[in-house]
Amino acid sequence: MLAENRKSSAAQNMAHGQDHEHQHEHQAVPSDPALRVKALESLLVEKGLVDPAALDVLVDRFENKVGPRDGARVVARAWVDPAYKQRLLADAPSAIAELGYSSGQGEHMLVVENSPKVHNLIVCTLCSCYPWAVLGLPPVWYKSAAYRSRAVIDPRGVLLEFGTQLDEDAEVQVWDSTAELRYIVLPERPEGTENLTEDQLAALVTRDAMVGVAKVPPPGEKA
């Protein structure tokens, strides 16, 4: 959480700095959350509990190295290997660890499968619990109050805003993540991918599809 907020703080400060270049009469003042994160980080560094360099490495790992790519590889393997798919649905942490991906959240993860008749949507109604181990840092919209409330109240409306339209007879199942249990969606494999390699399939899988707000587009189509 600290790493996530620290990155958010840096992004907010950068945005304020860019705005200040165009509005010299206004002073760029960090937002209250950014100031609180900065104060907390300074205190932890002062007490020797946090190494700023190690924190930078952690942020870089989840933003640039994990991203959604690890999750995409898990999905692609499940698409091409039916036995692996069954292990993934039965015991996600163990199956994900087979591919070398694990973290402190690894013991508490569940994979839910989309089908033509069932579409799964992931949310965290209390905060922003998210499967960092395979999807990296959560997007800003996932943490917003609007998404956290409307995903439960009006999931089809939320999906439409993301450009995802379901058949009328398709059921939408909403899964509420917690600190103890994180979810990841196994999207439907798109048509026209029968001859693609596992790496090519992984390249099609998006973060939004693994959260459930989108479907994986066929080759050549944009998400």
Structure write-up:
The strands form two sheets. This protein has a two-stranded parallel ribbon with strand order 1-4. The chain has a two-stranded parallel ribbon with strand order 2-3. The protein has twelve helices and four strands. With 223 residues, it is mostly helical. Helix 1 packs across helix 2. 52% of the residues lie in helices and 10% in strands. The two termini are 29 Å apart. The protein is globular and about 55 Å long.
Q: What labels describe this entry?
A:
223 residues; mainly alpha; two-stranded parallel ribbon; 12 helices; 52% helix; disordered N terminus
What is the total tally of β strands? Answer: 4
Proportion of helical residues: 40-55%
Largest sheet: 2 strands, parallel
**Count the helices. How many?**
12
Structural class estimated from helices and strands? mainly alpha
Q: What does the average pLDDT come to?
A: 82
Give a short synopsis of this structure:
This protein has 223 residues and is mainly alpha-helical. It is built from twelve helices and four strands. The N terminus is likely disordered.
Topology:
Elements: H1 2-22, H2 32-46, H3 52-66, H4 69-80, H5 82-90, H6 92-98, E1 109-113, E2 118-123, H7 132-135, H8 140-143, H9 145-153, H10 155-161, E3 171-176, E4 182-186, H11 198-204, H12 207-211
